[in-house]
């Protein structure tokens, strides 16, 4: 019941943020800005997003191989498509990462826990790349951001949110080790100790391969630049004159904020964040800033639809595992 209420609240927050954003705009001006988008460029952006999704699957397969779990590139790509669909389209259901972790365990007869853990490492690569790309982009754009007092305040506000999130994570880890000393936690620890130690072995493998992890993060930079290039193409076709460096700075920063569990799929959070960031630029009107945000959402929605077809057809599962799943409860 609490989970249902939480999901409903998050959807209300996301939808409310989008409605509030649109209510502050001149709808006729926004429609005029949106109508300038060239369909060919929109589909080019979707194509680049699909390529980026496939690259994410290849990265995941690479991370699995580091812990000696053999999964085909095609299987990893198909599961990635399913995950993106549930992250970006299915607002009230479980996240795509949970489904990826669930389904990948059916692609291996051993190391199921380690296979599920690889999803966390995969997400870490994405966040690390976003942080790096946003940092470089913001430093490159420093003159603009420091020239406008109000703009600097807004950017510092975004940085404060990220810092608060990191602090909350550190605090949560500290609290865990404190309450572990209680009798209840000691009993729980006795039950899960073996599983945790297995996960620590996987952590050691990843931590002991810094160069290979570095390659994964570099590859992730290419993935994100691929998606960002698509957004730049479609928005430029609408006559929006923002330089590519701002796309490279603002999008990763907003993606990190959107990954916080405020609303499903970052709904509303991404739209408000992206439009606020691009509104800082003198060459971008408020309506154009909102157009950029809405273009990204549309590309995400359309580009995530193949995941639905893959899921409904059962192509994301091995044939033998598909039969077993008929008798299991899928976490959705």
UniProtKB/TrEMBL annotation:
GO terms for cellular component: plasma membrane. It is found in: Cell membrane. InterPro entries: L-PG_synthase/AglD (IPR022791). PANTHER family: BLL5419 PROTEIN (PTHR40277). It is a multi-pass membrane protein. It comes from Sedimentisphaera salicampi. Pfam families: LPG_synthase_TM. The chain crosses the membrane at residues 40-58, 79-103, 115-140, 161-179, 213-234, 246-269. Its main location: membrane. This is Flippase-like domain-containing protein. The lineage of its organism: Bacteria, Pseudomonadati, Planctomycetota, Phycisphaerae, Sedimentisphaerales. Keywords: Cell membrane, Membrane, Transmembrane, Transmembrane helix. It comes from the Bacteria.
């Amino acid at each position: 019941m609490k989970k249902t209420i939480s999901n409903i609240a998050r959807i209300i927050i996301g939808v409310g943020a989008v409605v509030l954003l649109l209510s502050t705009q001149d709808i006729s001006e926004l429609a005029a800005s949106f109508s300038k988008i060239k369909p060919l460029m929109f589909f080019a952006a979707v194509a680049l997003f699909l390529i980026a999704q496939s690259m994410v699957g290849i990265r995941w397969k690479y991370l699995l191989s580091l812990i000696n779990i053999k999964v085909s590139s095609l299987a990893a790509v198909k599961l990635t498509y399913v995950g993106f669909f549930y992250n970006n389209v299915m607002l009230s259901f479980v996240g795509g990462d949970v489904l990826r972790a669930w389904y990948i365990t059916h692609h291996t007869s051993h190391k199921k826990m380690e296979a599920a853990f690889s999803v966390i490492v995969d997400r870490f690569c994405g966040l690390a790349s976003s942080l790096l790309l946003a940092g470089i982009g913001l430093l490159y754009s420093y003159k603009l951001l420091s020239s406008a007092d109000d703009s600097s305040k807004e950017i510092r506000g975004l940085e404060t949110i990220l810092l608060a999130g990191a602090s909350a994570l550190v605090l949560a880890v500290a609290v865990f080790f404190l309450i572990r000393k209680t009798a209840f936690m000691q009993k729980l620890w006795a039950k899960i100790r073996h599983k945790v130690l297995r996960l620590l072995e996987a952590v050691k493998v990843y931590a002991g391969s810094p160069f290979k992890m570095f390659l994964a993060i570099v590859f992730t930079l290419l993935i994100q630049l691929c998606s960002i290039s698509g957004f730049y193409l479609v928005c430029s076709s609408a006559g929006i004159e923002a330089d590519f460096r701002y796309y490279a700075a603002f999008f990763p920063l907003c993606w990190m904020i959107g990954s916080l569990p405020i609303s499903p799929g970052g709904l509303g959070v991404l739209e408000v964040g992206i439009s606020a960031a691009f509104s800082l630029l003198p060459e971008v009107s408020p309506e154009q800033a909102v157009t950029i945000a809405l273009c990204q959402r549309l590309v995400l929605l359309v580009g995530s639809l193949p995941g639905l077809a893959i899921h409904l057809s059962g192509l994301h599962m091995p044939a033998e595992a598909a039969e077993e799943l008929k008798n299991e409860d899928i976490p959705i």
